[in-house]
Specification:
- Residues 3-178 form the Bacterial bifunctional deaminase-reductase C-terminal domain.
- InterPro entries: DHFR-like_dom_sf (IPR024072), RibDG_C (IPR002734), Riboflavin_Biosynth_HTPR (IPR050765).
- GO terms for molecular function: 5-amino-6-(5-phosphoribosylamino)uracil reductase activity.
- It is built from five helices and ten strands, in the order E-E-H-E-H-H-E-E-H-E-H-E-E-E-E.
- The chain has 185 residues and is an alpha/beta fold.
- Strand 9 (165-172) and strand 10 (178-184) form a beta hairpin.
- The longest helix is centred in the middle third of the chain and has 12 residues, at 70-81.
- The protein starts with a strand and ends with a strand.
- The mean pLDDT is 95.
Length: 185
């Protein structure tokens, strides 16, 4: 059975999306990006909400841009090789290969997908992840914690959720970004 992983960059105060501005990520650092590449290369399927998909579809065409560094091109190859499922009631079509639209997030369908998958899956974006967390589907949480406090926005963990997690891996990068991987106890 494959794992469902929820992973996002988050501010020091726990926001995956800032109300204003960016999260001060540090993720564009080649060391961090190479780590992310290696971490997610084995992922076979990405589960996205519409907004996250519209952000990530950049990776479908970045290889055509001049002078892109090798770590960027590698991530793009890995992303294009994976399946993508976009949950949206408004998106009419997709602009990437290996991508399909689902109109509703069905926890039982995701359970079946996990059971049948040969490679891990990720759920990306705080809104979609909140549904997966509420359904008890998330097997690992990967946080990339920036050095910024942003004061508001969309939280990494949804309000009202209570989880008892165990830290299984951590790493600090030269930029101050912290990677922390947790599993439910």
């Amino acid at each position: 059975m494959a794992k469902l992983i929820y992973s996002m960059i988050t501010s020091l105060d726990g926001y995956a999306e800032a109300a204003e501005g960016d999260l001060g990520t540090g993720a564009e650092d080649p060391e961090v990006h190479t780590f992310v590449n290696d971490l997610f290369r084995p992922v076979g399927t990405y589960l996205y909400g519409r907004r996250m998909y519209e952000t990530m579809v950049y990776w479908e065409t970045v290889h055509g841009e001049p002078d892109r560094p090798p770590h960027i091109l590698q991530y793009a190859r890995d992303w294009r090789a994976a399946q993508k499922v976009v949950y949206s009631t408004t998106l009419e079509s997709v602009s990437s290969a290996r991508t399909r639209i689902e109109r509703t997030f069905d926890p039982e369908a995701v359970r079946r997908l996990k059971a049948e998958a040969e490679a891990d899956l990720t759920v990306d974006g705080p809104n979609l992840a909140a549904q997966a967390i509420a359904a008890g589907l998330v097997d690992e949480y990967h946080l990339f914690v920036t050095t910024s406090v942003v004061g508001g926005g969309k939280r990494f963990f949804p309000d009202g959720v209570r989880l008892d997690l165990r830290l299984v891996e951590q790493r600090v990068f030269g930029t101050g970004l912290i990677y922390a991987r947790y599993r439910p106890r």
